[in-house]
Amino acid sequence: MKKKNVYDKIKDDEEKIKEENKVKKSPDIKAMFSQRVLAFLIDLVLLSMITSLITMFIPMNDTATKLYEEQNRVLEDYVAGNVPMEEYVNQMIDLGYDISKQTVIISIVGVVISLLYYVVYPCYNNGQTFGKKLMKIKIKKTNDKELSMNDLLIRSMINNSILVNIITIALVLFLSKDLYLSMSSLLSSVQYLVLIISLIMIAFTKNAQGLHDKVVHTEVVMADTVKEDVLCTSEN
Q1: Are 218 and 131 in contact (CB under 8 A)?
Q2: What's the maximum distance between 2 C-alpha atoms anywhere in the chain?
Q3: If the chain, 236 residues long, is cut into consecutive pieces of 10 residues, what is the mean pLDDT of each piece?
Q4: Which of 40, 80, 124, 129 has its Cβ near the most Cβ atoms within 10 Å?
Q5: What is the pLDDT of residue 143?
């Protein structure tokens, strides 16, 4: 009888210790809508500056230079009232196509920079771009698995226009002008629609996940509520 009581006491003590040592995971605090929008805008401005700084060192051929000069001349004529609106729009569309065709290398470099910024950098920086770091928020998996480079790649393809930019480069290389203009216009409209839907989902749904988050099962939370990972993985 005495042994049984001792045994019971030991078991009770073990259970008590287990309960005391049990780590209760605190729920992640979702990033505020304003934080996510500001982070997005900061990243957009910073990436534009970085891309402009790097691509300015890429030599531009004479044809592209003349096209830019022509574009400036058309704009000046329109501002001066020498060109009607319809003619101005048509000329700028034609010049935009010709410039795109002559600056494919610059467009490709722009895509590479975007991939480095939105995929590689946050992969090794705790799921944070520079904008997200300033806003003290980060990307994480909803199932608490490691955030992978593939997750960030798919996410940025949808949310940061990288997929649209890649397709646009292919279109300008292989399609006629009329078909290119129609397809690029359609792609731009689809991209804007995706962004608008994502903003609505982030602002008004319980989980605050945009389309890009839903696809790869990620969420954006306050950075100080999540344990930092040293590296992300290259696996799904």
Answers
A1: no
A2: 108
A3: 57 62 62 95 96 91 90 90 89 91 94 97 95 95 91 96 95 93 93 95 93 95 65 56
A4: 129
A5: 87
Name residue, tokens 């531009």: 60
Phi, then psi, of 93 in degrees rounded to 5: -65, -45
Where do we find the tokens 């989980």? 207
Q: What is the DSSP letter of 144?
A: S
Residue type, 175: L
- Cα separations (Å) of 184 from 17, 90, 154, 168, 189? 64, 16, 21, 6, 9
Beta partners for residue 192, in sequence order: none
Backbone angles phi, psi at 220, to 5 degrees: -115, 125
DSSP labels, 30-77: BPPHHHHHHHHHHHHHHHHHHHHHHHTTS---HHHHHHHHHHHHHHHH
Beta strands in the chain (DSSP E): 137-141, 218-222
Whether the Cβ atoms of residue 28 and residue 219 lie closer than 8 Å to each other: yes
Here the tokens at position 214 are 């839903």
Contact 180, 171 (CB under 8 A): yes
3-class SS of residue 206:
coil
Residue 234's pLDDT is 55
The whole-angstrom distance between residue 119's C-alpha and the CA centroid of its chain comes to: 8
Q: Residue type at 62?
A: D
